[in-house]
Amino acid sequence: xxxxxxxxxxxxxxxxxxxxxxxxxxxxxxxxxxxxxxxxxxxxxxxxxxxxxxxxxxxxxxxxxxxxxxxxxxxxxxxxxxxxxxxxxxxxxxxxxxxxxxxxxxxxxxxxxxxxxxxxxxxxxxxxxxxxxxxxxxxxxxxxxxxxxxxxxxxxxxxxxxxxxxxxxxxxxxxxxxxxxxxxxxxxxxxxxxxxxxxxxxxxxxxxxxxxxxxxxxxxxxxxxxxxxxxxxxxxxxxxxxxxxxxxxxxxxxxxxxxxxxxxxxxxxxxxxxxxxxxxxxxxxxxxxxxxxxxxxxxxxxxxxxxxxxxxxxxxxxxxxxxxxxxxxxxxxxxxxxxxxxxxxxxxxxxxxxxxxxxxxxxxxxxxxxxxxxxxxxxxxxxxxxxxxxxxxxxxxxxxxxxxxxxxxxxxxxxxxxxxxxxxxxxxxxxxxxxxxxxxxxxxxxxxxxxxxxxxxxxxxxxxxxxxxxxxxxxxxxxxxxxxxxxxxxxxxxxxxxxxxxxxxxxxxxxxxxxxxxxxxxxxxxxxxxxxxxxxxxxxxxxxxxxxxxxxxxxxxxxxxxxxxxxxxxxxxxxxxxxxxxxxxxxxxxxxxxxxxxxxxxxxxxxxxxxxxxxxxxxxxxxxxxxxxxxxxxxxxxxxxxxxxxxxxxxxxxxxxxxxxxxxxxxxxxxxxxxxxxxxxxxxxxxxxxxxxxxxxxxxxxxxxxxxxxxxxxxxxxxxxxxxxxxxxxxxxxxxxxxxxxxxxxxxxxxxxxxxxxxxxxxxxxxxxxxxxxxxxxxxxxxxxxxxxxxxxxxxxxxxxxxxxxxxxxxxxxxxxxxxxxxxxxxxxxxxxxxxxxxxxxxxxxxxxxxxxxxxxxxxxxxxxxxxxxxxxxxxxxxxxxxxxxxxxxxxxxxxxxxxxxxxxxxxxxxxxxxxxxxxxxxxxxxxxxxxxxxxxxxxxxxxxxxxxxxxxxxxxxxxxxxxxxxxxxxxxxxxxxxxxxxxxxxxxxxxxxxxxxxxxxxxxxxxxxxxxxxxxxxxxxxxxxxxxxxxxxxxxxxxxxxxxxxxxxxxxxxxxxxxxxxxxxxxxxxxxxxxxxxxxxxxxxxxxxxxxxxxxxxxxxxxxxxxx
Length: 1109
Description:
Protein name: VCBS repeat protein
CATH class of the largest domain: Mainly Beta
Domain ASPIC/UnbV: 528-594
Keywords: Signal
Number of domains: 5
Helix content: under 10%
Largest sheet: 5 strands, antiparallel
Pfam families: FG-GAP_3, UnbV_ASPIC
Strand content: 25-35%
CATH superfamily of the largest domain: YVTN repeat-like/Quinoprotein amine dehydrogenase
Organism: Cecembia rubra
CATH topology of the largest domain: Methylamine Dehydrogenase, Chain H
Number of helices: 21
């Protein structure tokens, strides 16, 4: 909903989606989910919204947020009943009479509610008498209604008494949802009340962050259960309750596995989400920015569960990003880089328009893996539920979707911004809201059901499972309505009947077993809320927590249902009750309801630890006192010039260059500087620390950006000289600061720039330099890779061979010794190694929009080898390193690539391409990213983005609907496309190349977990002393347009090799690395006999990590 702030909550004129030539999905009896018709179930409920001149989407921004669903056994007959909230109508309670037949008992139970606008609903035994009560949140801004929340206390005889005021829960804020849980572990249920701000979005001054200031009317609240009444303890507990709290989701779980419940709040609009870590003393510490590097921008509903069966709770949050390119271009805008940075600088964190799957790393951090899992785009989404929908042992993801009118349709925004429209709508009598609202398009969309295929791979099977009919859904809940061990689904919709889906797993997938755990609490916590349950099946674990109030405005079945797949026995059931006592059962049968009583629990035996954390990590953070260096970059913004690109090139440094410059036997290090900041030389001391030196020559060249370098005795005096490559994306063609530099060493570590090196003649944007003897004279020459043609990103630059005379002077040798280096590609890294075993060093290149490229040393020069099979591995590579991964004596390679945790999905059939041309002939080039679809190309560029660069587009496509389905071939002429430079990428995984000899390589993608970010640095070493090569990798890129989002999922990757060419991914919690920022280099060094990992970052301090021997 964050996009509403740009559109004043307005909508669209998209054509209504039509399903033609098909029968309704629900008529197919072979679907996993079967729709239960209301004529059979007796649940005749619709959340209908009627137009009102005074109360509508323009006067109340949450008008289409919909109602909630609560599932629970209100009469203790063993069957799950249904409570549904309505915005304008009566709330309803339906009693389950078996076999999916329900009876409306709302009137006799007295639970219809008396308020004008109901939202969320929570079922909980509030007074601890063994009967589920119902708490209804109310909101809206309707004259004559005070929005007071209602608490219906179950009398145990089929009736309820409204007692919110008596219990202190008659809050009058704009309430969204409430969760009952025991935050202080005192044995009774407290409640967190989620409220949504009432203030108009456009009225805030975001430079004055209101977060710490408590709002007396609205704001979230934490109520402590004091027996017969609840007390507001929000402020003393550290809970924010400000006017910028736009809470739409509340999710409770033990994220750090300390036995105390933590709180995740998903906030809409510009306010960031909150993650409250329980301090175990009645207070919380809001810690989101420590745990999560980025969040959803328009955070809606959320859920928490162990999605990858590793025993740690993960968090899934919904947003508003459409999946289809056509719909995305019709209803979506993204913040500019400047506006995004403004929000970051003012404390609103890194927020992006997409769903996020925050995977718990188990070390106090999360990585958003939504893009890798392919769950990042589900349209305007509300409910998020993670549960095992097919009982295969893997939790799936259900997303409830749809906004009744497309409020952000870009054609509609232009329509209402038209002066003629304004005159027709606005008069002296006010605004004619009917005329304003009626043109908004109505586009029902399908919900999403992501089947978990394991290894963080999901597939949307909503149609295959029979629930794909388009609808406008909001609150949703799962529960076993017929006690068959499969979770059914109830979905509350706007202007449509509630949907009840029967899960037919028992019938269609009988090989998939289940275990239902029914927890019996004690004292005031009769449902044992907060209990943690783990099943051990072979080497697999399944984990859930008892927390029924979840999803969006809803509550699920109180009984925990575990899908077991084909397992026919559970080795062990482990239960940790809220007081720390445990229950353990061995050899438990499947397909049963297991009833467990808290009162039967015992103290854990000596040595038993429910949550066992890894011990003996490989890496341990070392003191930064070893070397005091902070890399600084200038404030150049690539997107100010290249407006249609998505990734910065100006933040790819620095590198660390090692060599003994003063002849004392200790390795010293040069660390490159950003443009405007000098590189620095540090001399190693005998105590393992480094002393910074003053080098006037280096300071004088501070306006060159250092991208790489090498120490070597270039003038034959026996001392290591320093060659520094100059590059970056800031300087124009022929700029003096692009010249590479040679600094001559006096033997004592003092360097003077050589004025006779000949390097001033070459002004390329260099990225990498490697020593190689290309002419066989025994003198090391230089390969210098070029990253980019200044101001012409996308055009392949010329890389170079510089021939050394051994006296400190270089001449151009490319044409003579390596002519294929001309326009070879946008090189980012290179390796010099004898890959073919002929005794001569060869050159292997990687780069952006490049396939791995091999140049064989013939003894007379470098010859590019034709490897057509490598063309299917064109990547966005940033790093290459060598090793022998299978122990056959041949040189293998590791390639650091873009990864799979990205919006860009590329393969052979559907590559990502970039067209580069001055399409409007105004003297500056445009870069158009596209996805190949058959023989045509779908642009990523939005209409308003393109017309800012090519103004004629505005006239050719007056409406977004005229543009959003167009291919490049429809937008530009054949000649314009023919004249464009085209680049292609079709392989984004970081991978190893296994050398099979005779110029053949096997390409093996690294494990999926290692693809969570862009890898800029790779290191090959033997970490565990088994004789096999292992890998350390790091990267990330924060310099990415908000439209695609920064690449921040990696905290450092470690993979252990088996010596046979395969690598096992090791989680951070096990190996210990927790690297922050944009990593650009990794170096393993020995200091005073200890192995130390040096981590070099862009625009940040250097880090050191001790390596366990």
